[in-house]
Specification:
Bound molecules: 6-O-phosphono-alpha-D-glucopyranose
Strand content: 15-25%
Helix content: 25-40%
Structural class: alpha/beta
Number of strands: 26
Number of helices: 19
Strand order of the largest sheet: 3-2-4-1-10-9-11-14
Radius of gyration: 25 Å
Shape: globular
Length: about 600
């Protein structure tokens, strides 16, 4: 998804913008551009593809300006192209705008502006902003921006600069994240803290309907109705090196291998195994609402939706209350039944996914208490929910989510035990479960040692056109997630199914060219899954089994077996997903795919 960075200070701006854009690369983009301001003109440079293309194109430009803005674009209106890349300018070329989000009424505005003589160059919705600001400009850029955004329906995070007032950046937000980085006589603006932490850790998050004016000696924030606002300065606590690759070939592999540590971070200070309790500070003021819920509704997108499905199984199993899981995009439009006894939990790594945010707002409108499970601190979802739990997985850079998934599942497990202990679970039972939960990171480390042997299996099937993933119970969502990982990064078509459903359709696809991944650990459905393996083998299918250590029986039936340490059934997804992440990763690398930035995908989907 698009990324935004802006800088005003004393240093040459171009290297700062390029560095910021590189740090935003992980969000996914197709083109990039910058606007650099000097007294008499704005210099604009844009390129398709990688930031390094943009950097190369700037080599001989010798710009020494100290004010500029930069953008990575992920196409929504108009194909990826240099002309559609941001920044966009007005007719005179005196005003430049970068924008994240979507201007819904851009077509009508464009017509009106064209009728007034404005000449458009791109197919984007963003360009109307540049012309609107031009239309309203009367010597005061901030006022022109305020008037312009008043005309606009939709979502935006924008930065605006002009050579007519070459001492300021105007920032405005409605629905797309935007923060201000505060330095000494230096201010930055960005869609994401990773773009500013090299320069400052002090940030202010703009709220929807807010605007900021950055000059070299101060920043001020206002509502778009021109009322000054007072903002709390927050400290960013994560390190730059945590978002670098740590010697791994890809961010995704680094993040897969980080999982033992991530889960320790997720549980740190919360799981108290010896007392059989869990402490979740973010829920403490609202715990009763959760405990009183007669029904829980989990809503999310993508991998977070799969984590939510596991949440459904655990909540129902341990709390004995009905749970529903909805795709956020469906929930928001399907007129869901919510009453004051229902509690909604939104699950999101980024905390910015447009559909999940809209589902949250819809649920709030219907007066349901909405809780959040989020990774990104200060994200929109984190700020708009009544209470919640951060998963503390650290920045996830690979577009395909891995460590956030296991951290989300761990968080759902912690919430379950916290609530079950309040309701019925004995301290002894709590202690038994939490001791086992604390042992999971070491078990994941054991599985990670199998990476090379999983690569050997991937070699045999990397040319396959299809994959089938089958699991039951707690491991049905894992089958879905394993299939999603495979298709996201290797572009091999893959489907996840409940194992028993195979006979109602997918079995027709099985022949010697169809690898079938079975999650066949020794749990309550083990024998039934074994029968499904027989059915696949009888039709010539190739079986890759994820099995419990020491399971001799399965070795006789499957073509390949990946053995895992045993754990409690409802904790098993935290371990069974690991070989599936590695299988997808190795298959994608063997096929020469861009693992960290798969085609057409974005890390954070902030449009509907
Ligand atoms: C995108 C990402 C997925 C992610 C989904 C939901 O599709 O590529 O990896 O699972 O969005 O994102 P969220 O940040 O809300 O968990």
């Amino acid at each position: 998804m698009c990324g935004i960075v802006g800088y005003i200070g004393a240093e040459p701006v171009v290297p700062i913008l390029i560095d910021g854009l590189k740090r935003l690369e992980y969000r996914g983009y197709d083109s990039a551009g910058i606007a650099v301001v000097s007294k008499d003109k704005i210099f604009i440079q844009k390129q398709l593809g990688k930031i390094s293309n943009l950097e190369d194109s700037l080599k001989n430009t010798h710009l020494n300006s100290t004010l500029g803005i930069g953008h990575t674009r992920w196409a929504t209106h108009g194909a990826p192209s240099v002309v559609n890349a941001h920044p966009h300018t007005d007719c005179s070329g005196d005003i430049a705008v970068i924008h994240n989000g979507i201007i819904e009424n851009y077509a009508g505005l464009r017509q009106e502006l064209m009728a007034k003589g404005h000449v458009f160059r791109s197919e984007t919705d963003t360009e109307v902003l540049a012309h609107l600001i031009e239309e309203f400009y009367n010597g005061d850029l901030e006022q022109a921006v305020r008037y312009a955004i008043n005309e606009v329906v939709g979502t935006y995070g924008i930065l605006v600069v002009s050579n007519k007032q070459p001492d300021r950046i105007i920032a405005a937000r409605n629905g797309s994240p935007l923060l201000i980085g505060i330095g000494t006589n230096t201010y930055m603006a960005a869609s994401d803290a990773t773009a500013v932490i090299r320069y400052t850790r002090d940030v202010v998050y703009l709220d929807d309907g807010e605007l900021a004016v950055l000059t070299r000696d101060q920043y001020i924030t206002k509502t778009i109705r021109n009322r000054r606002t007072n903002k709390h300065v927050e400290k960013i606590s994560f390190d730059v090196d945590r978002i670098e690759k740590d010697g791994f070939d890809h961010f995704m592999l680094k993040e897969i291998f980080e999982q033992p540590q991530t889960l320790r971070d997720t549980m740190r200070g919360r799981v108290q195994a010896e007392n059989g309790t869990v402490r979740l500070g973010g829920l403490s003021d609202h715990l009763q609402q959760l405990l009183d819920a007669k029904r829980i509704l989990l809503t999310a997108c993508g991998t977070s939706w799969h984590a939510s499905l596991i949440g459904e199984y655990i909540f129902e199993d341990f709390l004995r209350i009905p749970v529903e899981v909805d795709y956020a995009s469906e929930f928001r439009y399907r007129n869901p039944v919510l009453d004051q006894d229902s509690v909604v939990i939104v699950v999101s790594q980024s905390g910015e996914t447009a559909d999940t945010l809209a589902a949250l707002r819809e649920a709030k409108k219907r007066r349901a208490p909405v809780f959040g499970i989020c990774n990104v601190v200060g994200s929109s979802i984190a700020r708009e929910t009544v209470a919640g739990v951060y998963i503390h997985a650290g920045p996830e850079v690979g577009v395909a989510s891995t460590k956030a998934f296991t951290a989300q599942v761990t968080t759902l497990i912690m919430m379950t035990i916290l609530m079950a202990r309040k309701k019925w679970m004995s301290r002894e039972e709590g202690r038994r479960i939490l001791t086992e939960l604390e042992a999971i990171p070491d078990k994941i480390s054991e599985v990670l040692k199998e990476s090379d042997s999983i690569r050997e299996i991937a070699k045999k099937y990397a040319d396959s056109r299809n994959f089938l993933y089958l699991g039951r119970g707690y491991n049905f969502p894992v089958a879905l997630e394993g299939a999603l990982k495979m298709k996201e990064i290797s572009y091999i078509h893959a489907e996840g199914y409940p194992a028993a459903e195979m006979k109602h359709g997918p079995i027709a696809l099985i022949d010697e060219n169809m690898p079938v991944v079975f999650i066949a650990i020794k749990d309550s459905t083990y024998e039934k899954v074994l029968s499904n393996i027989e059915e696949v083998k009888a039709r010539g299918g190739r079986v890759i089994a994820i099995a419990s250590a020491g399971d001799e029986k399965i070795s006789e039936k499957a073509d390949h077996v990946i053995f895992l340490p045993e754990t409690l059934e409802f904790l098993s997804p935290l371990v069974t997903i690991i070989p599936l992440q590695l299988l997808a990763y190795h298959a994608a690398v063997l096929r020469g795919c861009n693992v960290d930035q798969p085609r057409n995908l974005a890390k954070s989907v902030t449009v509907e």
